[in-house]
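Q: Predict the assembly, please.
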Amino acid sequence: MYGSQNIEWHLKNAILSSYIDSITAQKYTELIKQVELDAINGADRIICVSENDAFWIKEQTQTQVILAPNGVSPWSSTDNGSKEAKVITSFYKYALYCASAHPPNISGFFEMFGSGFGSLKPDEKLIIAGSAGWSIAGDLRVHKSPKLAEKVTISGVVNQPCLNGLIDSAHCIVLPLTQGGGTNLKTAEALWSGKHIVATKIAMRGFEKFIGSRGVRIANDSIEFKRELRAAMNDPVLELTDEEKEKRNIVLWSSCLKPLEELINEMVTEISA
Amino acid sequence: MSEKKPIIWMNVTTSVNWRRPPVGIVRVERSLCFELKSLYGESFKQCIWRDGHFVEFCPTVEVASENKNFINHAHQTESIKAELPSIYLKLPRRKALVAIAQGFLSLMPLKLQPYVNRLLYSLRPVVSRALSKEWVSSLFRVSHQNTSEKLVQVDSQVIDSNKASEIFSPKDVLISVGLDWDYSYYKEFYWLRKKHGIKIVSCCYDLIPVMYPQYCVNDVAGIFTSYFLEVADGSDVVLCISKQSENDLNQLLELTGGARTLTHVFPLGDNVPESDNEAISEQVKLACSKEFILFVSTIERRKNHEVLYRAYHLLCKQGKKAVLPKLVFVGMQGWGVNELLKDIELDPLVRDMIISLSHVNDSELRKLYEMSLFCVFPSLYEGWGLPVGEALALGKAVICSNRGSLPEVGGDLVQYVDPWKPQDWADEILRMSTDENWRKLWEKRVQNNYTTRSWTAAAKSIEKCLGSLS
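A: Predicted assembly structure:
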């Protein structure tokens, strides 16, 4: 059974192209693509995490492909976690960006927040949690976009209770991804949190059914993204109805992995027979 | 019970600290202050930013001219401060700490810089929190007071208060139209609005540092972008001196996600001050003794004196020197024009044709306008273009650049020329200089159609805007 979190050759091509010359990037991309195709063609069953990925894989093979998106486990914040979070946020009203230092997370951030950052009021901040923070802090672009460095607070990598506290007290969660495949776990996390979300369409991959739902703002270019962030920060705290909360339960692992469970049962039955 | 009438406060920090004859923004601040005082009477007060908070400012010497009011005070304080000047420009404490951190980071070996950068990021919120603590603020206030002790002692007109909000009451209006970006007080606007319910009226003159940083000293685009973003969040209304400035501001706010605050375009007064008791210098008399074309502006790259020099060079080369009037530049020398001024000085073709005058008083300026054959204004970009309005107010023909806000000032009463085309300037200057009928035609159009914009009208426009705020 082959499970892919991404269409790797596609993503790696974008990353390599930003570091090395196009011919070399193309050469390595082809090698990655071949590895991926070998895995696809050698598999008995294939699991994908997004419809986009599934679409491409289905074009390459006759093997059964199922969709089992990434999800999250339900959480609740603890007093200690909230206290730790408050040390970082200094009681500011804030938008939160949780991300690793994976290059697309950094390039998306600067694509969306470059050329001046005016989305936040003087008493608002943009907190960056995760290793992305250090990469962003060390990048000259953060100083070249007026007001961005002033608005950003880097928490770095934090423990889970603190992260839960940060999410719990955030007014809005931003998902400024402009490349990459698969589904973004952070999108699932943001949806489950019930906070305002400002995301690119790419960040919503795998969770398309939430586009247009209350509290989810989609923006695909820098101007729109900054404007939507300001609008989200100006909105009152998002209070989801029970019905809306229920709909968001599909981002939990229990729901996401259901197709996989069915597939495994089916395979076990096949083997037993 | 009758409700307390809101006070209209005018922030006159720029004027009070100004040490030279008023130009540009200083003139705007003083003129508006004078007019608004007449309009609002007892409900109008002045304030200045001192030692980290706003204090009431009561000028002692009441004189007829709005400008002298400030100049008198400025002279008083200047004599008090006659001591060794600061070796460097003094910074607000936050900016000073940033400068120290910047220096620390820059002087580190390259290998250590990412770690130091990381450390500084971690320290920033801690330092920020510490700075906001009252005991730290008071520490800074005490140390600052030591340096300005003499000034405070003698300056008894200043009514002190401990906190920025204490002189203001909710619903009061604070109008700030000075060189606000040079001070730290604009960062208080947001808090005054949010915490104390004070209405803030700020001003956008132009976005030249953001849009054309190449014409400014250093790269100030980032600093001014931050300034405008802060002001947009902190203002109930931003006054704009032209539709062009209003559009530029809105465009910047749109691009950066800034607050879309209310804007109001108000007309700057362009009545050239009459001052009959100021002496006319020999230099000005000499300039006025022969025919000349006038260009009133600081000499800096954006103002495009270069295109006039090139036009004159072309005309002289074509053998027109004998029919050309002199070209008079009135204004102080700014940044980035050394080479141009050297060219003008050394070029054998134009050497005697271009005269530069600076530190011209109001009487001299008026005389120069009146005696000029016509006026030129080839600027590459403007937020308004006061000299064009002043020339028109005195019935002069004007050849003008068609960029920025200039068409708003000149309408169809001036002749427009592309500021990047020296030959076109040469052609139009030659025609306006040598074809008297042509020049008279333009003058007649101006005299019949131009309505002088007064500072009273400017103040009334602001009054109307303030009325709509409540």
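The first helix of chain A runs from residue 8 to 17. Chain A has a mean pLDDT of 92.
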